[in-house]
Amino acid sequence: MTSPAFGHEVLAAVLGIRDGRLRVLLWERARDPDRGRWALPGGGLRADEDVETSVRRQLAEKVDVREVAHVEQLSVFSDPDRTPGPRTIATAFLGLVPSDADPVLPADTAWHPVDALPPTAFDHAAIAASARDRLRAKLSYTNLGFALAPREFTISGLREHYVAALGHPVSATNLQRVLTRRDLLAPTGETAPSGRAGGRPAAVFRFTDRTLRVTDAFAVLRPPAQAGTAS
Amino acid sequence: MTSPAFGHEVLAAVLGIRDGRLRVLLWERARDPDRGRWALPGGGLRADEDVETSVRRQLAEKVDVREVAHVEQLSVFSDPDRTPGPRTIATAFLGLVPSDADPVLPADTAWHPVDALPPTAFDHAAIAASARDRLRAKLSYTNLGFALAPREFTISGLREHYVAALGHPVSATNLQRVLTRRDLLAPTGETAPSGRAGGRPAAVFRFTDRTLRVTDAFAVLRPPAQAGTAS
DNA sequence: TCAAAAGTGTTGGTGCTACACCCATGG
DNA sequence: CCATGGGTGTAGCACCAACACTTTTGA
């Protein structure tokens, strides 16, 4: 059991919709190695914390943690040569920040389009891509939209978030019906003022639930009966 | 960047259907700590390998690797006190062995029902539970059955595998239709002899594909068109 | 009164579950 | 020819995408 020891870092791909695009939070490295390239926030794991605690601590230094609506583990990146110098293993996380949260960012930190990244440090581009893919997959069978959208929104506003995140057209009509059928949306009773060009004012909604819920589990091999689930 | 270094181990929850139950491969610890308790196979990460390479190497010592039909990463277990002694972080994997593979096992190693584990070492019970849950979820929206079932099987034989893995009844009629509709099954043309009590001989099938395929992605927010996918 | 934007009604199609029925074998 | 188990036909339901239509606003 005398196995070697390795450095361990925690990295977070924090995604959010900003200016109509799906973006990831990156900071520009001021020092070698990879000076001038853009990196994911994160850093070394401390002796007294587990990786979940660590990622939240590290994010708190970039973003007010209360603004991060969802955090989940992606996977381990462990190529021996993934970084120069002493070997470091990384546990990668996906974080999501709603678009009405506008955290004050340090000067070296900015949101970059996840589909058009600037030159990135180490293997961080692969981590960002894996975060993007995880988000896209989960949007379609969970209520994860709550972590991208603002607290309150109109259906067409929500639709734009889904379009930006998924990268393909989404029908507002059917989006509303799917989310309503599954009881994910609740009307607030308010309406949003119509724009400069007129038009009927939109009803305002919020998500009924702001924690992750799988809505399509066991689509095929569903456990029998479960009477009462449909409400 | 002078963060501390930690031991890193790789652990595999190898699941398979044995004697009609979903079981996990465990070995009995002969030494303290946790002597006499049952542990998942695995061990320290070497300096020149990544975690995926490592888990396959470690499994080769217990099971002929060619018999492991599927391996995937679960998550990191990193509680500072998860093991006594110097801190060790674990990357946990799910491995699946088809029921027609019968690897020769070392004397200290045995298959145990995953829903009725013997006393387990460290946090290994939680890892086994997370492997079981991952398997159950993926069975319902992927072709992952190929990694549990034998190479060739009858529908009712396959049904028993799903029942054992999921823990709830599954209809053979509908199982066949669902898997056929998605082109996951191919008839071999052979039939299996009927049992002592008679009955029509069953047709023999195999999975068309023996690598993981997601069959239900984007059930809700499906990308538009994709002409020709249905074939 | 017209254009714009939001929201609802409706229709046709697909996939799924349940159940009834037919098929092939051993005794 | 009967019991046993395998396999298919089909009816009804739920869900869903597309599209036409109605509603409510600003100019």
UniProtKB/TrEMBL annotation, chains A, B:
Q: Cite the Nudix hydrolase domain residue spans from the record.
A: 7-135
Note the CDD domains from the entry: NUDIX_NadM_like (cd18873)
Task: List the InterPro entries.
Answer: NUDIX_hydrolase-like_dom_sf, NUDIX_hydrolase_dom, WH-like_DNA-bd_sf, WH_DNA-bd_sf, WHD_NrtR
Task: Please name the Pfam families in this protein's record.
Answer: NUDIX, WHD_NrtR
- What is the protein's name according to its record? NUDIX domain-containing protein
